[in-house]
Every structure is written in C-alpha cells, then in structure tokens.
C-alpha cells in the first residue's frame, strides 16, 4: 500500500495552516474543559474526604476510608506541566457520525454524567493508540498525536491508518520528545511508548519477562510503566501484596522515583538492591571474598548449617499433670521431629509445630491414663513450660541469622561441617580470612554478608512478599541477590531488565538463563530491545566498538537519534580541560554529567571549586545545579544532555570489568559526548578516527 504523508501541524502554532490551527484551537478548548472536569472530580473527592472524616464507625474502617480517599484526591491532582491527554483515536466504524472518539491521557477524566472525556492510557481501548498500524488498524481510522510544551498543546499529527498512513519513528512529536533537554528526574513516556515497548508494558501479571536491551532502549521506562499498568489492571491484588522496584543504587532509584507517582501510582516500593536485607552494612570484603559469598553454593552451605542445628533428642521429656508425671522418651521425640521435618516447614514454624505436636502427644497420654481431657490452661502452660522449652532448645534451637553466619565465618569446624563437598579448603579459608568480631552483635557486616543473613532469615521465616517485582540492571545481580528477590516474589511474577554488556560487578551475569534460574523463573521469555532512545548514533557507534571485546552474545543497539555530537580529544591536562568543557556546556541548556574514573573525582572536584563552578554529587540528582560530578562506578542508568568523560583507559584499568564500565560511561549522553584523555585510548576506541 502506498503511504500518503501524514497530516501534521508542525511544532509551533505560528506556521500551522489555517484549518489545522482551527483544529488545534478546538483541541485546546477540549483540554480546558477536561481540566475543569478533573478539577470537579477532585472537588467531589475532597468533599467525600471531609464527610468521610466526620463519619463514625470503627477506627480501622474510618482510617481505611480516609486513606483511600486521600489517595484518590492525590491521584486526581492535575500536573500543570503536562496536558491531560496526548492522543486521540477515531474508530473506523463510527467515523461517519463522528461519535466514537477517544482521548488518551494519563488518567480517566469523566464529566458529571460519568461520560469519559479522557481515557487512561492503560485502559483496553487505549492499547490501539500504541499498537494500531495500517496493516493491523485495530479498528482505528485516524490516530492523532499531540505535541505539548509546559502543559499546553502546541502541535498535532494525524495518521489516517485507513489510508495507509504511518509516521512510525519519523514522528516529529516522538523526535521532539526524545531530543528534549533532560532537566530534573526521569519522566514518564506514556505519550510515546513504542509498539515493541507496549507489548512488554501490557504483558499479563502471570507472565515473567527478561528484557535484554542495549543502553537507552527504554528498559527502565518499560519496567516502571509495566508496574503502573499492572496496578491499573490488578489493583486490589497489587495494593494488597505490593510491587517492589529494585535498582542498583540510591542514585538511580532517586532519578526514576518520580515516574510512578506522576502516573498516579503511589504504592510501589522503590529501593536499591542493598536495601533489601534488613542488615546495617558497615564492613567491606576483599573482592575474592565478596565473589565467593555471592556464589550460589553459599545457599547450600547456609541451608546445611541451619538445619544441622536440629539434632536427635538425648533425654526424655517429662511434664507434670497434677501429682502425676508424663514422659516421652528420645525415640518417641525423634519420631515427632521426623514428622515435622517431613512437613517441610520454615525453621521457625518447624519449632512451633514441634512444640505443639509434642505437647499434643503428652495430652493424649494424659487422656488415656486419666480418662479425662486436660484443660486448655494445662495445654498452654505445658507448651510454655521449662521442660518443653529446654527440650526444644536442645533439639531445635532458636538462632538469630546473624549468629549463625558469625559462627560459620569464625569457627573452622562449623564451616567445614557445613561446606564439606561444596567449598574447597582454600575457599573455606578465604571465607574466614577476616578477623571476626568477638560476638555476632559486634560484627561489621559487609554487603555480601547481608545477603547471606537474608538467606538464613528466609529459611527461618518467610519474608514479606510482593505480587510483582521489577528488577532493573539485573545483569549485575549475584546468585544470592537473585535468591533474595525470588523469595519475596509471591507468585513469581517478575520483570527483569538489563544488559549483559553493562555488567560490572564481579558476579555479573554472562547469560540470562543463570540469572533467571536463580530468580526462580528459568523459563521466562527473553525479549530483546535494540532501538535506542537516548544515545545519538554517532555516540552509539563509538560505544559499540567495545562490544566485541566483551565476549558476550548480545545484539547491538541502534539509535533512533541522528542528532548529537561526539568529540574525542587528547589533552595535556585532563582536569583543566574538563573544567573548560563544563564551563562552555553550562552556557547551553540542559544537564551535564562530568564522568571521571573514581580515582580522579577528588581532583576534578577541587578544580571545579577553584574555578568557581557549582555541581551536584551523583547521589543527589535532584540537586539545584545543571552540572553533576559522577564517579564512573555510579554512572549506571543515568543520563545527561552533555557528558564529559575523562580518561577511558583509566576507567578500564580501575576494575576487573573495566571495559564494561567504559561501555556504560560512553552511553550516558543524550546529545553530546566529549571524551578527554591524556593516556592512550583503549585499543578498541583508537581507530578508525573518523568520528574525531
Ligand atoms: N518510547 C519512548 N519515548 C520517549 N522517550 C523514551 C522512550 N523510550 C525510552 N525513552 C527515553 O530514553 C531514555 C533511556 O531510557 P531508559 O533509561 O529507560 O533506558 P535503559 O534501557 O534503561 O538504559 P540503560 O541501559 O542505560 O540503563 C530515557 O530518557 C527515556 O525516557
């Protein structure tokens, strides 16, 4: 089919032909009326909140009602910087009478008679806005997209799918959106979600996904929008058990944490992976030790160490009943222990079950010998009695997870018993190479220890679960971290996002199958994303030269962006040149990231201060300055209009996976990348020098 060029209003109103200008004016009036309607919806909700607060009833019910209404009011708040809708659908069968038009926006807006004025982007009808094409129009005759600025409509683009028109990636509105300067935290992409992204966003809750996508292909955006979509579609279930979004560090979480609230979703928990275990981290492991502690084999060692605490009974258990005594011998007690073990409880539940069953046996003894049922009081006091507790402490002792790990890391015999056949002698020595604190309470736990403690805690008691978990930058997760996530996944519904080429931890995945196995979803669909929305082609081409060196099987990302610039400059004084570059970038609009090898950050900071330039730290992206100084190890997931990247060879040299780190560093720029170096470049970046 020959595609006619779609009708478009251009990006400003002044150059719009008369007919389109009139249509734009009509759309603006519609937007104003939708805003009024939203205001009235909010006023009604506020009134209900006032009334709700005065309603009697029990405290819990009124608290729930207050909570629900407060959230409803918050969800109905209008964002003045974005229009209420960004699209319009005209359905094919209704085009003659013009009645079936749907505006697609960030949330439902209805008039007083409950007629829809704007449909939520997640509603089933809205799906066609993202997916319809001339080949598969999904009932759509005309799709209209709106461009906007500061909350006002500034342009529109029509595609007559019924006439074979399709703008696709050439849409001016899409291009404007991806090329806009980045200011402040990450924004939602609801207006321009692409069909292959939409397919992931709308995947059912029962489906777990593993998305392998190159830098800037929208993985983080897809994960967050999927969470928002699932909240909408399975509201009750997700609000009950919750949604967890996990990222690699606080800086990235802070950068993305506004997206869900801006979409009206206030209930997702967003944390960095290190915040998952409830353990204060104060210590640091040597890299070899950390890698070993993150190894999946540690799960077997810990499992064995914990369950080896359950031992055969040595003594009989005797309890009084009036003046009589009732006893269970070791063999009878061991039979009960066996029964409980067979029921595969958690460690803590097993102890409780053992207590209950042993006392039940004693109760039956009483019944048969005294021909009477002991009272409820006898049952309760016997359950808590010293002989029963002493028996449990000997046979199924309580243990704090920290205590168990401390024992393992400090007592060679304990470790040897638990690690036999699993860890080599050398590895066992490595695990005990740090001088332990005298008691477990004084131990300075490392981040890796925290996940070991979490593993034990998960064997002792099931942790709080979530209906859905989104794991970003998942290529960096260790086996033990994956397991920590898996045990919090109530139904196993996961969105796993990452890029093997950006793996920088010593335990980073080399294949998704391993990661998904540790996450408990070995069969999850692996979906590639390869269209980049952040990094301009010229920059992507440079970064892609590193990929063959990484020895990984990943598809290369291509960029939708053909703007932007790249300069690679050899300079005498990298720090001084960086200050100059930042100064001139500060004269332009947009954010600037000065990304330096970690060892150079102090020098850079001192030079910027001496030059009178102010900047944010990488973990404070909400800071007031356009310039942020980013150690290379914190660059992951972030983006800046201009990136000034220093000393690539040093970035490579400072870590085991330095090449992967450099790949991350080189793919942070939205528009311009300036690479400054004095040391020779890593060979992969040396030639061809055409881009210089
Ligand atoms: N469909 C889209 N429309 C507009 N912008 C988009 C779209 N998809 C992604 N983007 C933008 O592209 C940028 C990169 O997206 P995102 O950070 O989600 O990518 P990523 O794959 O997670 O990147 P990385 O691998 O570097 O972490 C963001 O600014 C995001 O808003």
Automatic annotation (TrEMBL):
The keyword Hydrolase applies. One of its GO terms (biological process) is recombinational repair. Coiled coil: none annotated. InterPro entries: DNA_helicase_UvrD/REP, P-loop_NTPase, UvrD-like_ATP-bd. It comes from the Bacteria. GO terms for molecular function: 3'-5' DNA helicase activity; ATP binding; DNA binding; hydrolase activity. The keyword ATP-binding applies. Keywords: ATP-binding, Helicase, Hydrolase, Nucleotide-binding. Residues 192-536 form the UvrD-like helicase ATP-binding domain. The lineage of its organism: Bacteria, Bacillati, Actinomycetota, Actinomycetes, Micrococcales. One of its GO terms (cellular component) is cytosol. This is UvrD-like helicase ATP-binding domain-containing protein.
């Amino acid at each position: 089919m020959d595609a006619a060029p779609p009708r478009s209003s251009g990006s400003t109103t002044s150059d719009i032909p008369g007919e389109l200008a009139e249509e734009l004016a009509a759309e603006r009036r519609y937007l104003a009326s939708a805003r009024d309607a939203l205001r009235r919806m909010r006023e009604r909700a506020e009134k209900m909140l006032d009334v709700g607060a005065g309603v009697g009833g029990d405290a819990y019910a009124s608290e729930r009602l207050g909570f629900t209404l407060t959230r409803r009011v918050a969800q109905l708040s209008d964002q003045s910087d974005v229009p209420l809708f960004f699209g319009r659908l005209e359905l094919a069968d209704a085009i003659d009478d013009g009645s079936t038009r749907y505006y697609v926006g960030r949330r439902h807006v209805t008039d007083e008679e409950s007629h829809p004025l704007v449909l939520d982007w997640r509603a089933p009808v809205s799906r066609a806005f993202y997916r319809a094409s001339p080949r598969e129009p999904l009932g759509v005759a005309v799709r209209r997209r709106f461009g906007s600025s500061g909350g006002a409509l500034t342009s529109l683009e029509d595609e007559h799918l019924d006439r074979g028109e399709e703008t696709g990636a050439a849409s001016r509105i899409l291009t404007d959106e991806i090329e806009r300067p980045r200011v402040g935290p990450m924004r939602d992409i609801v207006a321009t979600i692409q069909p292959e992204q939409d397919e992931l966003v709308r995947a059912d809750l029962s489906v777990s996904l593993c998305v392998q996508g190159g830098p800037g292909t929208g993985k983080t955006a897809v994960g967050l929008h999927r969470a928002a979509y699932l909240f909408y579609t399975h509201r009750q279930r997700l609000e009950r058990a919750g949604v967890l979004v996990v990222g690699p560090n606080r800086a990235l979480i802070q950068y993305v944490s506004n997206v869900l609230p801006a979409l009206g979703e206030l209930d997702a928990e967003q944390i960095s992976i290190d915040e998952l275990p409830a353990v204060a981290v104060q210590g640091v492991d040597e890299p070899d030790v950390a890698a070993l502690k993150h190894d999946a084999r540690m799960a077997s060692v810990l499992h064995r160490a914990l369950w080896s605490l359950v031992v055969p009974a040595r003594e009989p258990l005797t309890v009084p009943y009036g003046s009589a005594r009732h006893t269970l011998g070791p063999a009878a007690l061991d039979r009960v222990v066996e029964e409980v073990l067979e029921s595969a409880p958690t460690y803590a539940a097993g102890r409780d079950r053992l207590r209950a069953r042993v006392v039940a046996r004693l109760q039956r003894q009483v019944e048969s010998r005294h021909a009477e049922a002991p009272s409820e009081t006898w049952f309760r006091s016997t359950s808590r009695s010293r002989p029963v507790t002493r028996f449990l402490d000997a046979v199924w002792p309580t243990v704090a997870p920290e205590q168990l790990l401390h024992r393992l890391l400090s007592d060679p015999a304990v470790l040897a018993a638990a690690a036999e056949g699993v860890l080599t002698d050398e590895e066992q020595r490595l695990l005990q190479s740090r001088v332990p604190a005298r008691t477990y309470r004084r131990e300075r736990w490392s981040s890796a220890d925290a996940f070991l403690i979490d593993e034990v805690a998960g064997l002792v008691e099931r942790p709080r679960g979530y209906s859905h978990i989104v794991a970003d930058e998942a290529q960096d997760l260790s086996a033990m971290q994956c397991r920590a996530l898996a045990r919090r996944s109530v139904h196993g519904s996961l969105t796993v996002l990452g890029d093997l080429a950006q793996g920088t931890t010593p335990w980073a995945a080399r294949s998704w199958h391993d990661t998904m196995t540790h996450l408990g979803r070995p069969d999850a669909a692996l979906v590639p994303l390869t269209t980049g929305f952040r990094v301009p082609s010229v920059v992507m081409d440079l970064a892609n030269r590193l990929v063959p060196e990484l020895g990984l099987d990943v598809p290369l990302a291509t960029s939708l962006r053909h703007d932007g610039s790249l300069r690679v400059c050899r300079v005498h004084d990298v720090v001084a040149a960086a200050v100059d570059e930042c100064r001139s970038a500060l004269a332009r609009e947009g954010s600037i990231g000065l990304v330096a090898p970690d060892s150079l950050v102090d020098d850079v900071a001192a030079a910027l201060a001496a030059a009178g330039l102010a900047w944010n730290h990488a973990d404070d992206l909400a800071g007031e300055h356009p310039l942020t100084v980013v150690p290379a190890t914190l660059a992951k997931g972030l983006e800046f209009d201009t990136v000034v990247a220093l000393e690539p060879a040093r970035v490579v040299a400072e870590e085991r996976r330095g090449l992967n780190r450099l790949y991350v560093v080189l793919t942070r720029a939205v528009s311009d990348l300036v690479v400054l170096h004095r040391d020779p470049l890593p060979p992969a970046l040396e030639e061809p020098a055409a881009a210089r």
